[in-house]
Amino acid sequence: LAKTTQPISMDSYEGQEVNITCSHNNIATNDYITWYQQFPSQGPRFIIQGYKTKVTNEVASLFIPADRKSSTLSLPRVSLSDTAVYYCLVGENTGNQFYFGTGTSLTVIP
Amino acid sequence: EPEVTQTPSHQVTQMGQEVILRCVPISNHLYFYWYRQILGQKVEFLVSFYNNEISEKSEIFDDQFSVERPDGSNFTLKIRSTKLEDSAMYFCASRGLLAGGRYEQYFGPGTRLTVT
Known about the structure:
The structure holds two protein chains of two kinds. Chain A contains no helices and nine strands. Chain A has strands at residues 9-13, 18-23, 31-38, 45-50, 53-56, 61-64, 70-75, 84-92, 104-109. Chain A has a five-stranded mixed beta sheet with strand order 1-9-8-3-4, with no helix packed on it. In chain A, strands 2-7-6-5 form a four-stranded antiparallel beta sheet, with no helix packed on it. In chain B, a hairpin with a 5-residue loop joins strand 9 (88-97) and strand 10 (103-107). Chain B is an all-beta fold. The chains are: A mainly beta, B mainly beta. The A-B interface holds A 32, 38, 41-46, 49, 87, 93-94, 96-103 and B 4, 31, 33, 35, 42-45, 48, 50, 55-56, 58, 89, 91, 93, 101-110, 112.
């Protein structure tokens, strides 16, 4: 299982774009990259998943370079409600083990 | 939107007692999971369950833990003899195949277990 490394914490002002990078140097060919968001005392919530290049949905974009050894979650125009912990997970799409790293605690400042 | 439910939301028990945490996964999902999160720490994988048997388990999931799908809807985690260090939030998750071949895990709201 590929280990992931993320910054422990980040601060951002409301309305700005936030980019959170995750390093996964040992990613395997069959691994996908998935990002989750977790608010205090709640279960993690799926944000976005990708395999390569760029994926965009209604809440975020995910950028994955050609070597796939890192990925960047981009949150456009964050609001106070985006204050949460963001986790990057790497694993097979059909796998049965999912290990969360320490995550990145994002604080959005008014 | 379908959701995973968990009961109870908070369970207080004395050390050495048995507890059963209950989960109702999303109805057409086939893969089920339990995770725990000690206060202030990361989410930790405990076990995955598919086709009525354990698929994978972590080092945390020792002989004190067991899982069961007693009927077509519930998925339970049993801790036989609780220890103080079992105090944590326990999350159930289920996973299904979505359009485009992507699998996505849905997490429940969690059960906060307090062992005194």
